[in-house]
Amino acid sequence: MADDSAGNDSLLTDPDGGLPRLAHIMARLRAPVGGCPWDLEQDFASIAPYTIEEAYEVADAIERQDWEGLKGELGDLLFQSVYHAQMAQEAGYFTLDDVLRGIADKMIARHPHVFGDEQIDSAEAQTEAWEARKMRERAAKAQTGVLDDVPVGHAGLTRAIKLQNRAARVGFDWPEVGQVVDKIAEEARELTEAAPEDQFEEYGDLLFVMANLARHLDIDPEAALRAANAKFTRRFRSIEAALAAQGRSPRDSDLAEMDLLWDAAKAAEKQR
């Protein structure tokens, strides 16, 4: 799907141009002559934060069941892939065609029960087969360590879960949830007793064990935290609305009053 940015501008106005149209738009944005100055200044590192942000916005739209919004967010996320592929093509690393070919080949190879003769009867069996196949792929890449290919670019809680899952497959895991809870209490105590210069490390340890508890409870910690953020935002806005009805703002209130308004918002939510 290599793009000829010097021609084929008919794609720009073709509503059914699909992925080639988007690739052509991206090539035009990065064209040395006539391109967008901002886009021309970007590189992989500067665009990566936007890629992560778009992935979170996809997740947010799904959680809110905003299906029209999801359509737009998926487009934004797809554009990030096209953006990186365009920069890679300019550098001579690979092309968008290579990306598409690679993911298609990978999906076919990892689903032999769909595209081949292998028999898999449950989602659990598929997960086990998937992981076994990934282990063989890592071995072929000379990645022999259990944690070798867990990406460092994941959000912290997500990477913690992936590291813990990997370690658990070789038996390095607490067998009971209660043991994880005990470890949380231990880490919380160490944090409160730590010297200021050690608090950063101890806080990280506590978060890591909290992620482990989420894994044992089969909870996505990132999703749980997003839900808690949304709840906090919703209830704080209720506080603001209640004070605004009196011609005041949080700056004109105090913690005791706002706590009462928080409890009122919480109670109102439970009655719905």
CATH topology of the largest domain, what is it called?
A: Helix Hairpins
Strand content: under 5%
What is the residue-mean pLDDT, rounded to a whole number?
A: 89
Sheet having the most strands: none
Helix and strand pattern: HHHHHHHHHHHH
The CATH class designation of the largest domain is Mainly Alpha
Contiguous uncertain segments of 5+ residues: none
Strands, total number: 0
Taking all Cα atoms into account, the compactness measure Rg is: 25 Å
| Shape designation | globular
Helix/strand/pairing category = mainly alpha
CATH superfamily of the largest domain: MazG-like
Number of domains: 3
Helix tally equals: 12
User: What fraction, in percent, of the residue positions are helical?
Assistant: 55-70%
Distance linking N and C termini: 52 Å
GO molecular function: nucleoside triphosphate diphosphatase activity
Protein name: Nucleoside triphosphate pyrophosphohydrolase
Keywords: Hydrolase
EC number: 3.6.1.9
